[in-house]
């Protein structure tokens, strides 16, 4: 009995090892189609008015896809590596009142709800050019409702097919125009993964060593003054006046990047904190760019 169970487990392991990706893709396809059909039967109700059934079908088929697309972007480390810090110190905050003028913002108009509803672009289309109340549109017979239901389903399937074929073509073109072969691409991806793991391990070890040195330098002193506690009580990477002065002092004494108040205290213990003069304060953006250009030269 035990040998039979072990053989079954071994066969299952071999199948998953050799065809794991194929089985996973098939499971995802079956679950997607089954879930879509189940959701359609439980929740899909066609809107009765003509323009809304088209919008409803588009939202029904594109909504889950856009949600999964946004989740995929959020979980993709490459996207965050490209955008992380790209806007820092280069652009100022856009002022909302520059983009919300009184003459173009609908919510700023001083009108009644009825007048605003009548001025809507879809009012004539929903009310048949004002011949009947929009609330009476839903009173249709079964044939009209079935026709609109079928129309919505056809539009939804067309969108699904177009997106599926487009995704397949983009994937094929991306792989065909790749500068690496399949085996070489697998090696490159393996190297990138291992490199990221090793970099993370070494970064953690280095950060742990430096943090331990700074913490030991502070706690082994044992005769702390109020100024020492003021140094290490700042909030890291926050533009408050106390930490801004500490960063300015650190920039005058060293070219290393200071991250936390404890690093500043450890590297500049005993340095008197002086309120910087207005003329001596340099924009951090220009300072960073100047140092970068000097490094290039």
TrEMBL record:
It is a multi-pass membrane protein. It is found in: Membrane. GO terms for molecular function: monoatomic cation channel activity. Pfam families: Ca_hom_mod (PF14798). Keywords: Ion channel, Ion transport, Membrane, Transmembrane, Transmembrane helix, Transport. One of its GO terms (biological process) is ATP export. It comes from the Eukaryota. GO terms for cellular component: plasma membrane. The chain crosses the membrane at residues 20-39, 51-75, 154-173. Belongs to the CALHM family. This is Uncharacterized protein. It comes from Diploscapter pachys.
């Amino acid at each position: 009995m035990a040998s039979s169970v072990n053989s079954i487990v071994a066969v299952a392991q071999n199948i998953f090892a050799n065809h794991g990706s194929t089985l996973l893709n098939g499971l995802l396809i079956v679950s997607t189609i089954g879930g879509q059909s189940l959701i359609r039967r439980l929740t899909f109700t066609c809107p009765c008015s003509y323009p809304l059934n088209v919008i409803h079908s588009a939202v029904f088929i594109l909504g889950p896809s856009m949600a999964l697309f946004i989740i995929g972007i959020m979980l993709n480390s490459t996207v965050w590596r490209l955008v992380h810090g790209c806007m820092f110190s280069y652009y100022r905050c856009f002022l909302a009142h520059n983009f919300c003028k009184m003459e173009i913002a609908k919510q700023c108009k001083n009108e009644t709800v009825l007048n605003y509803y009548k001025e809507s672009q879809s009012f004539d289309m929903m009310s048949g050019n004002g011949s009947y109340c929009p609330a009476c549109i839903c009173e249709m017979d079964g044939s009209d409702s079935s026709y609109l239901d079928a129309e919505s389903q056809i539009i939804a399937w067309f969108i699904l097919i177009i997106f599926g074929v487009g995704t397949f073509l983009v994937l094929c073109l991306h792989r065909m125009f790749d500068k690496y072969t399949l085996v070489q691409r697998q090696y490159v991806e393996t190297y990138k993964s291992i490199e990221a793991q090793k970099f993370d391990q070494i970064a953690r070890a280095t950060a742990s060593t430096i943090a331990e040195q700074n913490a030991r330098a502070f706690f082994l002193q044992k005769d702390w003054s109020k100024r020492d506690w003021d140094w290490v009580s700042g909030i890291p990477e926050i533009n408050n006046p106390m930490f801004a002065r500490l960063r300015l002092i650190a920039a005058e004494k060293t070219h290393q990047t200071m991250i936390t108040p404890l690093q500043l205290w450890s590297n500049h213990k005993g340095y008197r904190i002086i309120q910087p003069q207005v003329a001596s304060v340099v924009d951090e953006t220009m300072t960073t760019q100047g140092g970068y250009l000097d490094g290039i030269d």
